[in-house]
Amino acid sequence: MERTLVMIKPDGVERNFIGKIISIFEEKGLRVVALKKLKLSKEQAKTFYIVHKERPFYESLTDYIISGPVVAMVLEGENAIKKVREIMGATDPKEAEEGTIRKLFGVDKEKNTVHGSDSPESAKKEIYFFFSEYELIGAEK
Ligand code: CDP
Ligand code: MG
């Protein structure tokens, strides 16, 4: 079992797609371990996307990500990190495969509706960015 961090970005929340997006992940066998809606500050957004700080889109991306509420969740499943990345689709919705979340809902390369961790290291970092240990409730009874 593996855990990953998913964030529904402001364009997804704004257009009321929270439930639809979670359903897609659940239908593919992933399980919600933690979930919250919140609005990030600019400082938090800059920290979350710190790996992109030298990229030309950093300023615009962090402004966009604070433009409205987001929904953060931890999903669990076999190969959850890779699986979530496949279900999301390519960064640019124009290049995303049919049936992926970004193909279905993405607006453009920036407003692409969802974020998913890209490695075990970033998953760990991103999960604890949003949640503390006691908020993570797995399938175990
Ligand atoms: O999210 P993903 O891992 O697919 O892409 P990334 O290369 O790690 O970029 C992070 C986020 O920055 C993307 O999801 C887009 O929202 C944004 N981005 C952008 O605005 N312009 C780009 N040329 C590339 C990414
Ligand atoms: Mg990335």
Order of strands across the widest beta sheet? 2-3-1-4
Name the assembly state: single chain
Q: What is the overall number of helices?
A: 7
Number of domains: 1
Globally, the shape reads globular
What is the CATH C level class, in words? Alpha Beta
Question: How many β-strand stretches?
Answer: 4
List keywords for this structure.
single chain, 141 residues, alpha+beta, Alpha-Beta Plaits, 4-stranded antiparallel sheet, 39% helix, 18% strand, globular, binds cytidine-5'-diphosphate, binds magnesium ion
What can you tell me about this protein's structure?
The chain has 141 residues and is α+β, with helices and mostly antiparallel strands. It has seven helices and four strands; from the N terminus they run E-H-H-E-H-H-E-H-H-E-H. It has helices spanning 10-14, 18-27, 42-48, 58-65, 80-88, 101-105, 120-130, and strands at residues 2-8, 31-38, 70-77, 114-116. It starts with a strand and ends in an 11-residue tail after the last helix. The structure holds cytidine-5'-diphosphate and magnesium ion (MG). Cytidine-5'-diphosphate (CDP) binds at residues 57, 61, 91, 109-110, 112, 115, 118.
In short:
This protein has 141 residues and is of the alpha+beta class. It is built from seven helices and four strands, in the order βααβααβααβα.
SSE layout and pairings?
Blueprint: E1 2-8, H1 10-14, H2 18-27, E2 31-38, H3 42-48, H4 58-65, E3 70-77, H5 80-88, H6 101-105, E4 114-116, H7 120-130
Antiparallel strand pairs: 1-3, 1-4, 2-3
This protein binds cytidine-5'-diphosphate (CDP) and magnesium ion (MG).
The site of cytidine-5'-diphosphate has 8 residues, from loops.
